[in-house]
Amino acid sequence: MNRTAILLTIASAAFAAPKASPPAVTFYKDVLPVLQRNCQNCHRPGEAAPMAFLDYEGTRPWAKAIKEAAVTRKMPPWFADPHVGKFTNDRSMSQAGIDTLARWADSGAKAGNPKDAPAPAQFASGWGIPQPDAVFEMPEAFEVKDSGTVEYTYFIVPSGFTEDRWVTHAEARPGNREVVHHIIAFLREPGSSWLRNYPVGKPFVPKGGGGGSEASGGFLTAFAPGLPPEQLRPGQAKLIKAGSDIVFQMHYTANGKATVDRSKVGVVFAKEPPTHRVLTLGASTSKFVIPPHADNHRVDASIVLHRDFELLALLPHMHVRGKAFQMRAVYPTGETEDLLSVPRYDFNWQLWYQLPLGKVIPKGTRIEATAWYDNSRNNKSNPNPDVAVRWGDQSWEEMMIGFFNASIPVDAAPVDLFRAPKKKADAPAGQ
Q1: What is the pLDDT of residue 284?
Q2: Which of 98, 106, 205, 340 pairs with 306 at a CA distance of 20 to 30 A?
Q3: What is the CB neighbour count within 10 angstroms for residue 215?
Q4: Is residue 214 scored above 50 in pLDDT?
């Protein structure tokens, strides 16, 4: 190419039309659809989040905070390692959604044209389950003082059922979200000795803690930040036997002003006879001591199940020193499968990780759980790194439970899950 041609090429490039800038990101056209998909389930009045992201005026002041939470993946709350297991309720935000929120915050958080907005998202009003067939409410309001520790408080509420009931949906709803940290609704079957010396319909604090493992009917449902209502798949249900009681375990946190709470639990009955019964189980241990200043203390627990079952969902549970959690299946063949890895545990969000349909676990499998705790000063949530920490109800104490939901045929006895088969006696010599 001669000198003249080179100069003409350079000149042509210099005067070429500039590349088009990416279109502006606006609230109504770009951001609102992301918020509807990923945020509004909690960020709306009456739900867990402290602010609503339903309109531009309410969202604009939080633009920079929204960007930071999305980019660091603190929100939406979802902590499973994407390389371990597959979960049907994965609520993590796509990279495209994260980029949209970041560009909106960085470009001035403009409103755009309201005509570009999608139709408002529709959410259930009140109950997050279909209209309950039965509601169990604390018989009286409980007074929460303005300060101090409130020990776990229990209420026994008779179901009034005169026949067995199969339940497909269950939800615990706090009467006062400002002070209710969590609710666990246990089932107490007729004849159970659990809490038998305590009054029905009145609040009480059991001596030595009420636990829950003794509840003969098991775990019905629970409320905690991030925890969805119990919604089982077609053909699956939980059993509430005739004459059972609903036992509320209430964890209250004083917030500086005296107030009251009256929480409730709603259930929806199965419309057709179920084929499978769902049980909430756990790999757990209370026998641990986390040393002072330990920043990566490991605790292990396991449980062996002695009949086939379908594994439905997993939920790790620790308190504020919880750092990471893993769950595994060790099969009778000796093979191990990683089921869940939560490398960054957050006590503020109690999440079920729901598996795809058909995860059958053979009898003789050991479900293992491993938890790591940070009792050091580097843990900003640590109330006191100078003390050894043991099992306890309160948040400054610790727990270690790998919850999981298991499904078995309705004609199977739940006790068979835990009862090892008897070994056959050796045949006499000569036979």
Answers
A1: 96
A2: 340
A3: 22
A4: no
Cβ atoms 219, 184 nearer than 8 A: yes
Residue 183 has pLDDT above 80, yes or no: yes
Task: Classify strands 336-342 and 276-284 as parallel, antiparallel or unpaired.
Answer: unpaired
Two tokens, residue 322: 């919880």
What is the β-pairing status of strands 153-158 and 218-223? unpaired
Q: Measuring CA to CA, how many Å separate 86 from each of 89, 234, 354, 355, 356?
A: 9, 20, 8, 6, 7
| pTM score, whole prediction | 0.84
* Residue 103: exposure state from Cβ atoms within 10 A (0-12, 13-18, ≥19): middle
- Alpha carbon 2 to its chain centroid, in Å, reads 71
Q: Which domains does the chain have, with CATH numbers?
A: 21-116 (no CATH), 127-274 (2.60.120.310), 275-419 (2.60.120.230)
Q: What's the distance, CA 112 to chain centroid?
A: 36
Q: How confident is the model at residue 166 (pLDDT cuts 50, 70, 90)?
A: very high
Length of the chain: 431
Find out whether 95 and 17 touch, Cβ atoms under 8 Å: no
pLDDT digits (tens, 9 = 90+) for 14-37: 555 555 566 789 999 999 999 999
Mean pLDDT of the chain: 90
Distances in Å between the Cα of 232 and the Cα atoms of 169, 267, 331, 415 are 6, 12, 26, 22
pLDDT digits (tens, 9 = 90+) for 247-301: 999 999 988 999 999 999 999 999 999 999 999 999 999 999 999 999 999 999 9
How many alpha carbons fall within 13 Å on the CB side of residue 43?
Answer: 20
What pLDDT does residue 209 have? Answer: 62
Helix (H, G, I), strand (E, B) or coil at 22: coil
CA distance 221 to 238: 10
102 φ, ψ (degrees, to nearest 5): -65, -45
DSSP string, 74-138: -SS-----TTS---TT--PPPHHHHHHHHHHHHTT-----GGGPPPPPP--SS-SSSPPSEEEE-
Mean predicted confidence (pLDDT) in 301-327: 97
Residue of 241, 86, 232, 111 lying closest to 164 (CA atoms) = 241
Per DSSP bridges, beta strands 259-261 and 153-158 are unpaired
